[in-house]
Amino acid sequence: MSLELESKSVDGDVMIGRSTSFNYQESMEQSASKIMIVSGWPVEINTRWIEERFRTLLEAGYVDDILDETTNSKALTNESTKSNTAAFDTHKAIVYWGKRVADGIITMEFINDATATRAWDILQSMTQLDELSPGEVPHPAELICAFESDRKATLYVGDLELTVQGMVFETTADTVDQTIKMMEESKIESIEQPSAKKAEEVVAADTAPATKPNKKKWWTNNQAAPSLSRCIKAINQLYDEHLTLPPPPRDWLHESTFNKRLTRTHVHLTDEELDQRREICADVAQIVGCVHNSIARGIIRALGARDAYAMSDFLNRAMLILSQSPPKRNERHDVLPAESLANNFSPYEACLDALNVLRSLNLDIHPHHYSYAIRSACHEFRWEEAANIFLGQIEGDDSHLADGTHDATGGFVPLDATLGWDQPLEMGLYAVAIDARRPKLPMSVDSEDNRETSPSAKVFDAAMKMSMIAPTAQESYVLAAGSVLGRAGLWSDCLDFATDPNNISKYGPSIAAAAMLACIESRRSTEAIELYNFFFNSENQSTASEWQWAGGNLSAAKPLFDDLLLRAFGGPTRGGHSAAAIQMFCVMVDDNTPFSSDALVGLMHSIEHDGDWQSAIKLLEAFCDVHYRNKENKWHLVNEMLSVSGIDEVDDATTLTKSQMNDLTAQLLASTMRACNQEGFFSLSILLSSIVHSFVDGESGGDLLLPDDESTIQAIASQTLLSNKHLREAYIHSLSKVGLQRLVRTMESSATDANPSRNNKQYLAAGESMLNAFVATNRILTALDDVRRSEKHLSRADELLISRGLSTAMNFYLDANHPASAIHLFNYTSKILNLIRSRHATNNTSSFSKKMTAFFGDDRSEPKTSIFQSNEPVDYKILKVNDSLLSAVMRAYTMKGQPEKALLILKEVQGDTESASWGTIQSFNQALEVLLESDVAEFMSFFEDSSNGLVMPSTFLALARKYAREGAWPEIGELYNEARRRGCVSEELGLIAMQAVCEAELEHSKILVLRKISDDISNAVGMKKTKDWLDSQYWHIKRYTGFHYARLLMKWNVPATSQKEELLFAINEMRHCRETGVLTKNAPLFCIVKQGELYESNDGYKGTCLNEKQRRAAINIIFEACAEAQLSGLIKRPAFTAEVVRSLLALNGDTQCIQFVKTLIVDGEKCRHREAMEYAIKAASANQDNESLELLMKTFENSGYVHRH
Asked: What Pfam families does its record include (predicted)?
């Protein structure tokens, strides 16, 4: 039937071929009842057979309806019946069938409402879910249905769950209302939060990736056949996302690193990053599969040069991503079972698919394509297949390939000789080594392939085959063979192979270096050192005559051997090799011989293992001086010695980059800090870190304004090298040992909590001094760095400012009892100022070797330990030493146990004519203190002849301490009177005088003399009322005079109530300290917890003089003191806890006593508070607390104590 087109107008609408105008809204309303939607189709599974079966099921009833109508019609003839049946064959019940693959939705429209109703009835007649008996499992191909309403049901097909529903159609009015409502809500939200929205946009712009992520993963459809441009766009997006992830670690490639014995590094990728990398690899594998479809359908042909290049680049990126897929291991680093791997895709198989694409398009396959396939096979532990691919490249045949594919390159393409664990050369040889190590089943009884061949022979044979194509790279190939044998744990086999005379003559000197490298890679440094001695021993030099390289000797290869030997020296933790390592290093520097960064680290480790912290510091500072300050005389340092062996000159490609230099500096600094920490010089290691970072960070380092936690943490966080894990561990260990534990806790909490809690408690005296020293040191280093970079001469005022700042920093170190750090800072500052002054003077004509001789020692002919201990003399004229700085230097040497050195410095400075321009009060008194400890007679002569203007209170105090140690109490009285006459009374001197009054016999009342001394001291310290000074220093006064005279000074004159008045005084002081954020002293806390002595009865056990309310209050005060003791660490002292338990029992607090002792038990096993446990066991036994008694008895025995009867 033909359709006649007609044109007419109805209500202004033009209609062509229709009686009325087409309205989309009305059409959808009429068709809504005929539409069925099926959602939940998976995109990664081919479900075509389920779709066909479901469609056939819904159309089944429609055929029967048509045939019945045709048969029952009497008006139809046979011819008309045939024509109607033919028409039915071309007419289906479902007139529209569409599938949106990405959304997993199929939409169908039936020919009329009756057919649609019939389809829903068919679904109702199917097996319903509730009809199944309990435990019955349906057939996987059976369709099970569960209706929720008339037009909504859930269809189950095996593991597939689909949702079938009719179309939910909204009218135009509903749609318009909903749209208007959404626009109004959006407008209100944009008005209320404009700034927040803009801020989110800014953050999103800053954190957005360089390329937009794929909103729709079209490649999840297995039937997709995309164009080449679409594939390239998708792979570029995935490649950019791949670059944002951390690089794969070395652990992934080496099987031996998963062994407990050889684990070297830690996987630095989080679980989220690993999952993201796996997802990217899975997407790439799906895209490669879609490329196969496009090639099969002729969409991608890559006939032109441009398309061929684009396809090759596309597959190169795809294989690169696949080769870096994480290895499949479980949490215990074991290979996953086969059933677990079966559910995941194989990156290696995907790489093989990519190689097949290159072959099908007749594109060139390059060596790096094979290296990607080899690496992916290694990650899946398919060692044999990886080895076959590599051997196929170098042998030029397919004999190693089990599948018969042509993966060989003809053996005429030389492999890149670049060395490194992630390079194609070592990856392929590593696969050969691992495959050769694994046992093989014999092919046949008489087969020649069954002859046993060592893994080393196979690996070195592969290296020699590569040398046939590239003879100039033979040395690199042999060294790579030794490296992979070591990583594979085959060092012993390699050692036996290398010492065979036949192999020595065949492979030349490089076989010895390869064997040493294998031992080093396997952490067999002792064997590497023995191997070096074996080859360079005069008895074994006869084999050298057979070598054709290097003129028949080892001279050309010796720099490589020496470099490897320095690396080996740093391996043995028991030490003993630092002297030989130092001697070899000095010779290499003198001869300008190149050496690697690993060799320098090995030298530092050998020094660290021998505990030679002085030499470690000198090596570290020499490295920083040469490579950061004096750059024209750099050491011949390279990144990797293996890459420059046999080359006379080092090119730019082998020098260290900035990041490599920072990593090397961090390793040297960490080793030096560990060496200092082992000897107890914790503050010195922190000082060294600040000095090194002044070179590394340069102008990025800033001055500190306040010595508080926040500023200090910011200064520490700004140090670039602390990103190194080992250096950070050593730094935190040093901080915790110098009294800055709270700083460490704050740093750790700030790393996990955005708003860490602040602690207002003060540090102990040593920690506070160390914090001030850190701040002062950074200021000194910043000033020195500014002066070093400037071109101006230092003025007299600048020199005095530096001297004052240096003396301040040194005094802080000395107050913290760290004289070594003070001396090192002084020597370092004088060295820098000397270099600055010499920069403007005449050029120094001494050679660099002479400078190194002066630095490392005068004699290098013998390996002496003292060669790193010689120091350049300090020129005090250049430093412009003032009185305070000279006093600090003398004090530091005195504290270090070198009083002779302190007096020598004083005489040297006094010999300077410029010393008359400043006073020597502090240094003179410091000299008197030194003489007091060494020569008392000379001290007394200086002291008696000195004028009033030179003697300081510290001198009188030092002499008073000496008299007190000797018990010369009358002399202390005379000394105190002399100090009063000269105006040199100090607080501690007055306390010692009080002690002398109490110990000596006086004619007058002692309390009157004590009150007179109290008045003198209060006036000396600036307190108007003597009572205020007595209150502030009561616990010191009690320690010097005893409780009797102390209570009289406090005017607690009634003996019966004096102890309770002292208790009240201690409680008030404790609470005042808590309110002001100051740690409570130990003395008042001891006084509070010993209050049980006041309430003991005659039997010394239970007290009954308090009522119940008073008893509970006393117990609460004791626990209040325990809380303060927890903050100061006093709670850890067994003497303190014993007093707590004793008082609790005296107050009838048996239950509280038992609970308190339970809190002292560490991890429920041990407790070092023996006396407290004994009291608690006694209380638990008396109260029949069997559960607590059992716990306490078990802990007592686990702690190693024996009951005292």
From this structure: PPR
